[in-house]
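Take just one protein record:
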Amino acid sequence: MRAKNRLTSSFIKTAPVGKHCDGAGLWLVKRDDGGAQWVQRVTIHGRRREMGLGGFPSLGLADARKLSERWRNVAANGRDPVKEREAEERAARREDISLAVLTADAFEARKAELKGDGKAGRWLSPLNLHVLPRLGRVPVTDLDQRDIRDTLAPIWHEKADTARKAMNRLSIVLKHAAALGLDVDLQATEKAKALLGKSRHVPKHIPAMAWQDVPGFYASLEEPTLTHLALRLSILTGVRSKPLRNLRLEQIDGDVWTIPAEGMKGRKGATADYNVPLSQEAQRIIDFARPHARNGFLFPNTRGGVISDMTLSRHMERRGLEARPHGFRTSLRTWLAEATDAPHEVAEAMLAHVVDSGVVRAYRRTDFLEQRRVLAERWASHVTGGTGQLMTLTG
C-alpha cells in the first residue's frame, strides 16, 4: 500500500461521510451535509496538531498535497505550522495588528477586572483622546519609544495624571500584544519615560473646607432641594460622589447604608460591600429626600438618571467657595485626626480607605462599624453646631 497519494480525484467526488487518509498526515473529512474539508496532521515537539487547509472542491487534491508538503517541512524544521500560518496571516493583514485594534482587544480581555466592566469608558479615554488619534493606525510591532514620546510630550507636564494613565495603558496593550506572539518592544514605554524626563507637574489637591467651617456651611443648606439634601448627606457620611448620587432606597436598612462593592473606588473585584453608619441627622436628611425619589434613586434628575457631580460642585462655586464637595472627605478626616482619639485604622475606615495588605485584611475581619457609628454621631453633632472639643471614642 502506498504511504502517500492514496486518494484519487474520482474517489473524492463520491467519497462517503467520514475521514479518508491520503497519507503523510493529509486527510479529507467528508461531512453529512455533503461538504468536505482538508485537514493536515503533524507532530511538533511530541504533540499532535491538526490544521485545516481548506475546503473541497475549492481546494483540489493536487493543491492540498502541495500545502500538506509545505507544512510538513515546517514541522520537520521544529516550527509549529499552525503558529507559523497565524504569523503569516497577521503580516498579510497589517491593519489587524494596529495599535487601535490591539487596544480594543486588550480592553476586551481585561474589562471584567474593571468597575462596571469598564462601561464608563475611563480606562480607554486617555488612549482615545491623546494616543490613538495619532498612533492608532501604526502596527503595534512598529511602535517605539520615539513615537510614544512625540505623542505624549504635549501633555507630559500640563496633564501629568492623564499622561501617566495613557502610558500605563500603553504598557498593558504592549504586554497583551506580546502574549499574542507579536514581536513588540515591551520596554518602549519605559524608554519613552526616560526621553520625556521627570514631569514638572505639581499635583493639586481638591480644595477642602476647614472642619471648623463646616457647621456654618451645613446650616446654610436649609432648603429641602435635592442639591442641598445631597450636599448635607455627603458631609455627614463622607462618601464619594458617585455612590452618594446613585444611592438607592433598597440600600438603606435602618441606620446602615450598604454600598455595593462594585460601586466603591479602589475595590475592583472585591466581594464585600461597604457599610456606612447613618447618624440620626443623616437618617433625617434621607427621610426629607424620600419624596423626591424616582425609579428607586434617592437623588434623581429630570431625565431618568441621577443628579450630576457638576450640579453639586457648581452650587458651591456659585456661592463663591473654593472648596468642592469631594473636599468634605478631607474635612472629616482632618476632624478625626485633630478632634478625636480614633485609631488610625478606624479613621481610615470612615472614608473606606484600604490601609493594610490583603493578608492583614483577611485575618482582621471587621469593618469597625460600631466604632464608626459612634464617630458618625459625633461628627453629625459637630456639623449641626455641636462642640468642637476633643471627643474620645470610648466616652
Notes: Confidence is low (pLDDT under 50) at residues 266-270, 356-364, 387-395. Residues 242 and 263 are 8 Å apart (CA to CA). Residues 95-196 form a domain with the DNA polymerase; domain 1 fold (CATH 1.10.150.130). The chain has three domains: 9-91, 95-196, 211-383.
